[in-house]
């Protein structure tokens, strides 16, 4: 495809094929997304329909990406060669046409040199224009073929029959140099455009580069190197120091540190040992380990990230749909304007009316090529989505990227979004008389909690495991469901439980421990007591810790003029404490999942553009209702499926960055569209000769060709500026 009109042409050809319900073309990524009924239409039918208009479809599902890259690379090399050779032939034509007009046989030399430029190096423009015309369609190739073909034919006539003009007292002008230079400039523009476009997809190339091609397969006592594509679930694989993890799985033997920065954004390598998960594309540091493959091929986290980025780069922003409609009627309108300018010159131009009219006709067709229009939105989207992926912000579609900057209300779930999502022991205080025995008693406490099924017991085990050398063997253990546990060791009775349970058991509390427990409870901590023989000997505070970055993120969002709300199913006291810690003014506690979606609707009813951030299944309804939905990367699969954006690291500080990225991308789209339209609005009238009656100025077709090429390159270059922007 060579321009926006090509994309519209491809789209309409496929969309009008029986059995196809929807077709979307992305000009920048050269991809086609189709929704179709396989019982009514085959992919090969769509391919044949496109081949009839001069395009082709890569339908090899295994190697489509590689074939497309190879095709684009060979196209780029061929284009480079064509541009260079066409330029070498055109240079003497320009010198003769500009400075050596009286050279004997000058017109014949120019005709001989410019003919191969047009009909050999530029033959694709003519072939494609003819194919389009057969189907009643027009695109950029139509404009180029008509303009250069007309200029060349007019010049050939004047070279062969100069007497026709001499008899009428006029000089026979030739425009061989104009037609040849236009072809060269358009080829050069395409070359620069292809080169620039390849930079817009560099994020995808980086991600794909993270996938290793081969892997060490362990079979019994032997290890052999095999292609990663042959790996199946359940295979045992070996990863040596410095190698990339090939697929997702679980470590079965050995230990090491793995650099997971491409997934988590955290620069510090993560310790891995038996039972830990590893992900494709992450880099093993010093040790080596074996692991069992759990997710292979397209199921791996890295493959899903790549697919998400590709789909997003290929999706259309709402503004693009409007641009496509304009591009569809743009070429016919330009052709009509060119004919009007030709007719006006013939009628009003006097002796040189026809010559000047043909020149204006050629120039209007050349300057109006809608390439810049077709590249304006998709290149900005591609760079924006790619930059997001590099920062740990996965964007599912262009619409959410275009919408996000308009947010003025943002709802945050508490657990797992603002907080860590897992309870941790924040304090453990022993009674004064038992402090000397705390190591021994800690072992007993650890042993009891290891056998408890209560969700908070895990937090206590995690806290004590590093501090206590070993646990003890209990004489007995009994769980009192929902309240606490009882256990005996060396003839002593121990109890662990909530203040309510401790009170019901008639356990005595010292003023010191009781006062501490009240203070912690007021700060929204969960309090549990540890008692020995009917007397409390320690008290623990357990809390779902607020993430270190949450307060900064909320502050940054509020500075962007966004109202931040917190919704949680937790109790009011905990909600108030968390809201205060992070600086949120509006919050609601004890909220059911359905109520979250209703709250989103309520804000939307007030005219607000609402964003929802969540990580659980209970957030999925509200995520679906919101204008822009954002999932935390460590959340549930359902939340991630529903959401339009995913923050890979679950770091809320990526939120303000995502909104800034949206604003920068939309600004780039607007700038691109402005330049693409303003260029045509100014260029077409000047090309038609509007300034001639006032200033005697007529635009040369060569300058028009250069300007047209420059407009496309400037649009792509403007999009690439996004890469350098700081989020």
Automatic annotation (TrEMBL):
One of its GO terms (cellular component) is plasma membrane. It catalyses: Cu(+)(in) + ATP + H2O = Cu(+)(out) + ADP + phosphate + H(+). It is a multi-pass membrane protein. InterPro entries: ATPase_P-typ_cyto_dom_N, ATPase_P-typ_P_site, ATPase_P-typ_TM_dom_sf, ATPase_P-typ_transduc_dom_A_sf, ATPase_P-type_domA, HAD-like_sf, HAD_sf, HMA_dom. GO terms for molecular function: ATP binding; ATP hydrolysis activity; copper ion binding; P-type divalent copper transporter activity; P-type monovalent copper transporter activity. Residues 1-58 form the HMA domain. The chain crosses the membrane at residues 83-101, 107-130, 142-161, 173-192, 326-348, 354-377, 673-695, 701-720. PANTHER family: ATP7, ISOFORM B, P-TYPE CU(+) TRANSPORTER. Belongs to the cation transport ATPase (P-type) (TC 3.A.3) family. Type IB subfamily. This is P-type Cu(+) transporter.
